[in-house]
């Protein structure tokens, strides 16, 4: 049996890789990829807690499925926004998208 | 060390190594390819955690859906005159971001190691996928969030087309 701590530490490391990507990337699509990594890490945690603490219930897996639905929606809308910005501003470098800057 | 643990280390190394390459590659297209590899590694982890249905959903939704969407977005926004600039790389605050990420990782790891997670887990029920299915459409269970999720996906479908449409 895999120790639960191993799974949790792997998920934490994956989440932090995503955090670094979101905070450090200049490309809008690269930032979205960081968000996807973070969502994957939370899903690993949900499945691990289901398996180790409540294997008889279905809620852990069901919550992971809801995360999938929200992740798909988030990726679709985010990429649509990036394409719309590319059409009007000709850039997806986040530092150049400063229309709302005072 | 059991076979399960060895496989966990292999899949975990694939997932984490690919994830680190995703956030450090300058070329955003290479990053997307490593992201797909990372999704595959996560699917392997679900199999090891005895959640085969979620492993299949992971492959369908992430590898089959989101990864393709990201690759499409990269090709649609590619600056053909300036292909290197599209990679963009990291911004001026990357060192602070790395500091925050490492500190957060250390904190989460400390909590994971120092909390008592209780006794060893029992076996997974044989019909756990059937239980998941009935819970999702059970009025006493999760039918309301299930229906809200379908409305959310419909709104996303319409909203995405509206936002990305050529005006």
What does this 3D model show about the protein?
The complex is a heterodimer of chains A (102) and B (167). Chain A is mainly alpha-helical and 102 residues long. Chain A has helices spanning 4-24, 28-53, 59-89. Chain A has one domain (4-92): Helix Hairpins, CATH 1.10.287.3510. Chain A is elongated. The chains are: A mainly alpha (102), B mainly alpha (167). At the A-B interface, helix 1, helix 2 and helix 3 of A face helix 1, helix 2, helix 3, helix 5 and helix 6 of B.
Can you tag this structure with a few keywords?
heterodimer, A: 102 residues, mainly alpha, Helix Hairpins, 3 helices, 76% helix, B: 167 residues, Four Helix Bundle (Hemerythrin (Met), subunit A), 7 helices, 0% strand
Topology, element by element:
The complex is a heterodimer of chains A (102) and B (167).
Chain A (H helix, E strand, L loop, with lengths): L3 H21 L3 H26 L5 H31 L13
Chain B lengths: L2 H22 L3 H21 L3 H25 L6 H5 L6 H21 L13 H10 L5 H22 L3
CATH topology of chain A: Helix Hairpins
Number of strands of chain A: 0
Poorly predicted residue ranges of chain B: none
Give the largest interface pair and sizes. Answer: A-B, 71 and 88 residues
What do the pLDDT scores of chain A average to?
Answer: 91
Q: What percent strand of chain A?
A: under 5%
**Helix percent band of chain B:** over 70%
CATH topology annotation of the largest domain in chain B: Four Helix Bundle (Hemerythrin (Met), subunit A)
Helix count, DSSP H or I runs of 4 or more residues of chain B = 7
In short:
The complex is a heterodimer of chains A (102) and B (167). With 102 residues, chain A is mainly alpha-helical.
């Amino acid at each position: 049996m895999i120790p639960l701590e191993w799974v949790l530490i792997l998920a934490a490391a994956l989440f932090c890789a995503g955090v670094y990507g979101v905070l450090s990337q200049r490309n809008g699509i690269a930032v979205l990829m960081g968000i996807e990594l973070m969502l994957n890490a939370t899903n690993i945690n949900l499945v691990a807690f289901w398996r180790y603490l409540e294997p008889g219930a279905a809620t852990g897996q069901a919550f992971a499925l809801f995360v999938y639905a929200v992740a798909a929606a988030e990726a679709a809308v985010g990429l649509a926004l990036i394409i719309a910005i590319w059409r009007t501003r000709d850039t997806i470098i986040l530092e150049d998208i400063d229309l709302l800057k005072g | 060390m059991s076979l399960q643990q060895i496989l966990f280390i292999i899949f975990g190394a694939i997932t984490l190594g690919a994830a680190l390459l995703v956030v450090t590659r300058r070329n955003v297209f290479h990053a997307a390819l490593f992201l797909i590899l990372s999704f595959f590694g996560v699917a392997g982890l679900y199999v090891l955690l005895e959640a085969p249905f979620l492993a299949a959903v992971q492959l369908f939704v992430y590898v089959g859906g989101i990864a393709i969407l990201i690759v499409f977005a990269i090709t649609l926004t590619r600056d053909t005159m300036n292909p290197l600039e599209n990679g963009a790389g990291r911004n001026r605050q990357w060192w602070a971001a790395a500091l925050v990420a490492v500190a957060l990782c250390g904190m989460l790891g400390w909590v994971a190691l120092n909390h008592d997670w209780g006794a060893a887990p029992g076996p997974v029920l044989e019909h756990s996928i059937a239980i998941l299915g009935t819970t999702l459409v059970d009025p006493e269970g999760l039918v309301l969030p299930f229906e809200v999720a379908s409305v959310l996906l419909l709104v996303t479908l319409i909203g995405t087309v509206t936002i990305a449409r050529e005006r």
